[in-house]
Amino acid sequence: MRVYLESFGCTQNLGEARALEALARRAGHEILRTPAGAEVGVLVTCGVIGSTEARMIRRYRALAGRIPRVVVTGCLVPLRNGLFPPEYADRTTFLPIREQARLPELLGAGDLGGPGAPAPPAEPPAAGTAPTAEIVLAQGCTSHCAYCFSRLARGHLVSVPPFEVLDRVRAAARAGAREIRLSSLDTACWGLDRPGGPRLPELLGEVSGLPGAFQVRVGMMSPQSLRPFAEEYFRELRSERFFSFLHLPVQSGSDSVLAAMRRGYTSGEFKDLLRTARRAIPEIMLSTDLIVGYPTETDSDFEATLALLEEVAPEVLNVTRFSARPMTPAHRLPPLPPGTVNRRSRALAELRLRTSRRRLEAWIGREARGTVLEYGPHGSSVARLPNYLPVALPSRPPLGRRCTIRIDGARSNYLQGTVRGEPEVPEEDAPRPDGLRVVALRPPWRAAPPVPVRPSGALGS
User: Fold this and answer.
1) 3 state DSSP class of 336
2) At what angle do helices 267-280 and 299-312 cross, to 10 degrees?
């Protein structure tokens, strides 16, 4: 059967889409890169904000209008199934996140059509991209954020057992991955549902000892989850195995807004964590997130946010305008005037450009090692420094190779540089037997029964 997949949203969604792709391929189905000729379309949805949700419905209409059968999964299933147009209901299957391992069963058992065709030849890697693996560490989280729809969609925390994580890293390394991304809603709460078991620093210690010419990027984590073992975590992150990258959302610089959001930390505790990180790894790259226009945000709250950003000066700042999501406590709050939100959003955009440019310009004139992970237009390429800062290069060294780079310039969100000398040959340049650009293994919750998600007062008992 010919299958086409689309994924939207976070790195975890991308990892799950690649896992679905690998499951379908191993079951003998052909994966297409465009919808043309597909017999089944798989849509991995995101519902983080209202505009994204609306885009998911548009993409569903587009796919259902040209593909005979559609499987919808991701964060809109099952809580928002009613949004999808009923005219395609007889050709649509809704697949809950924790049942994604059933995709081959649906494809092969005839639920979506006939049996799968013989396995097609492996496709070559996508042109211009080094092999990357997405490994999901857990489903759900332990937070109770008042505005978050994702935690309702994904339920309580279920961590992948440590031996499975390590097996997946080994498999990705054997398949030739140069970058391995560990992701979940909150990577720092991995293992919290297994009392007495290892936590994230111990897991990274094991990963650092595995063979292979790869580097690991650890994904988003919440401050309150990182706080209990911050010192140990940043000690492990100093290994060359890991990118010195920290995605730590702050969401607001105001303690009163953070309390209203139910974030579980203060702005001072966020800054303490960042001081710990920069003391252990002075050049660590900080990526943080902000919600502008939260219903309780006053002018003084917003000024506190601007002051915090000036102080911490993140390299990457992701700003999202507050979007009231159904079934969340914040959904009941009266919104701020659109003009106020627009004005604050513009102020944050200007501050982001200024602070990011200031930190990036400090690299000009320096030399650093980087790994070439992507080819750009007109003979260019993109390398990542050890702290994951992107560097645009005018040449195209071999993908996956490390090289010495002289930093010549800086833009608002990337550096510019040139390669000095010859690229290094990796010590372990493993072949890619499956030919996949992205290596992903079966979802970690395969053996676990579905967990009902019952937001308080939303779905009943």
Assistant:
1) coil
2) 10
User: What is the chain's percent helix, strand, coil content, to nearest 5?
Assistant: 35, 20, 45
Is pLDDT of 76 > 60? yes
Band of pLDDT at residue 129, cut at 50, 70 and 90: low
Spell out the residues 6+ positions from residue 4 whose beta carbon is closer than 8 angstroms to its own.
Answer: 31, 32, 33, 34, 35, 38, 40, 41, 42, 63, 67
Hey, which bits of 103-178 come out as E strands? Answer: 132-136, 138-139, 158-159
**b/e map 41-77, b = 16+ CB within 10 Å:** bbbbbbbbbeebbeebeebbeebbeebebbbbbbbbb
Q: Which of 151, 157, 212, 112 is nearest to 439 (CA)?
A: 212
Work out the pLDDT band at 427, boundaries 50, 70, 90: low
319 pLDDT higher than 90: yes
Question: Do residues 318 and 48 lie in contact, with contact meaning Cβ atoms separated by under 8 Å?
Answer: no
Half-sphere exposure of 311 (CA within 13 A, CB side): 14
How far is the C-alpha of 287 from the C-alpha of 360, rounded, in Å? 13
- Determine contact, residues 96/73, Cβ cutoff 8 Å: yes
3-class state of residue 370 by DSSP: strand
Determine the Cα–Cα distance for residues 287 and 122; give it in Å rounded to an integer.
36
Residue 116 has pLDDT above 80, yes or no: no
Among 150-154, 301-305, 396-400, top mean pLDDT goes to 301-305
Distances (CA, A) of 177 to 7, 23, 133, 373, 393: 21, 18, 6, 10, 21
Question: 64 with 33: CB under 8 angstroms?
Answer: no
> Which residues partner with 213 through β-bridges?
none
- Residue 422's pLDDT band, with cuts at 50, 70 and 90, is confident
Helix 267-280 vs helix 230-237: crossing angle, to nearest 10: 40
457, pLDDT greater than 60: no
Each residue of 4-45: pLDDT tens digit? 999 999 999 999 999 999 999 999 999 999 999 999 999 999
14's CB contacts (< 8 A; 6+ apart) are: 7, 134, 183
Can you spell out the DSSP letters for 377-421?
Answer: STT-EEEE-TT--EEEESS-PPTT-EEEEEEEEE-SS-EEEEEES
**Beta partners for residue 316, in sequence order:** 287
27, burial (CB in 10 Å: exposed 0-12, middle 13-18, buried 19+): middle
The letter for the amino acid at 253 is G
Task: For residue 4, give both structure tokens.
Answer: 């086409």
With a cut of 90, say whether residue 99 has pLDDT above it: yes
